Amino acid sequence: xxxxxxxxxxxxxxxxxxxxxxxxxxxxxxxxxxxxxxxxxxxxxxxxxxxxxxxxxxxxxxxxxxxxxxxxxxxxxxxxxxxxxxxxxxxxxxxxxxxxxxxxxxxxxxxxxxxxxxxxxxxxxxxxxxxxxxxxxxxxxxxxxxxxxxxxxxxxxxxxxxxxxxxxxxxxxxxxxxxxxxxxxxxxxxxxxxxxxxxxxxxxxxxxxxxxxxxxxxxxxxxxxxxxxxxxxxxxxxxxxxxxxxxxxxxxxxxxxxxxxxxxxxxxxxxxxxxxxxxxxxxxxxxxxxxxxxxxxxxxxxxxxxxxxxxxxxxxxxxxxxxxxxxxxxxxxxxxxxxxxxxxxxxxxxxxxxxxxxxxxxxxxxxxxxxxxxxxxxxxxxxxxxxxxxxxxxxxxxxxxxxxxxxx
Length: 408
Prior knowledge:
Blueprint: E1 2-7, H1 17-29, E2 34-42, H2 47-51, E3 59-65, H3 73-82, H4 89-92, H5 97-109, E4 114-118, E5 134-137, H6 142-152, H7 156-179, E6 182-185, H8 188-198, E7 203-205, E8 226-230, H9 236-256, E9 261-265, H10 271-279, E10 283-287, H11 293-298, E11 301-304, H12 314-321, E12 326-328, E13 345-346, H13 350-362, H14 364-381, H15 384-407
Parallel strand pairs: 1-2, 1-4, 2-3, 4-5, 5-6, 6-7, 8-9, 8-11, 9-10, 11-12, 12-13
Helix pairs in contact: 1-15, 6-7, 9-13
């Protein structure tokens, strides 16, 4: 099958959930299909990001683009201009006339069997062609993320801003999902939410995967009171999770276990997070690292205190594959086929979350049992090859259905 895959970023470095999922899926898909990867490419991307594209596609078509740096004058100007736009800012900033022209030219010059829009963001530049099947690959229910941002805010100004963005995202996401021949979600929960919220019937789900050969126990002795969190710290839900943990959960653990520490591993931590760490010697923030595995391996437990999010958290599967016991909120483990008390512990109230962490840190048998079961589960059911095969079966069904409709 000849596939035009649309994205708004190059995949290297493969250092956040959305990149990891796309990279691992495309590595499998590109072995059997002809993939052209057309994407916005930041002018600051290194040569490795371009050179490494051959790992996941047969052809790369980059469209140079520059994202406004957060908290810059241009960033605030664009936010102000967005107040009068019908589009949410997270979509509007990716609007590109150059990308729209590049997509139109590719569709005119090459006979693609299928177009895949990876996330909602490239969809703003795609003009739908009724003669060519197109699939939207949804890693999250984006409007649900913005709704949770609104619900968790206490500042009136921020609450008003997030309410506006939520409403704009809801309308845009609903209309985008309805425009594609099919939507592919990353969990059954997301699939059902999109079907019910947006009134679409052609919506499917594929499983989340993990590379269990790469993510495996490394054999180091865990630091007895060390907790770890990994994730892109420039993603607002991750920052919210660490602020919430530092302010409402960690102090409760400290009262019982004064030696407890938290290591936060992930790129682009904000000044706010660095200030929190500077003021509390129990918290260490690493910034971007080349390999998260040693940090996970050195911890006694892995925490996912997310209050805002969507899709599925690859970070949980990575920790589970390394045999680490995980404590997560319900939101953090949302959409994953795991059970509280079996593959992980789930706690939503700050006191309950702190209690679950204390249990794992003080009960080596419990921690070992949950970590062992967690790894066994992901090894048995969650390899990337299965996820990619399921994805392509859905795509082949969409292409076949369109072909039958044209022939009728």
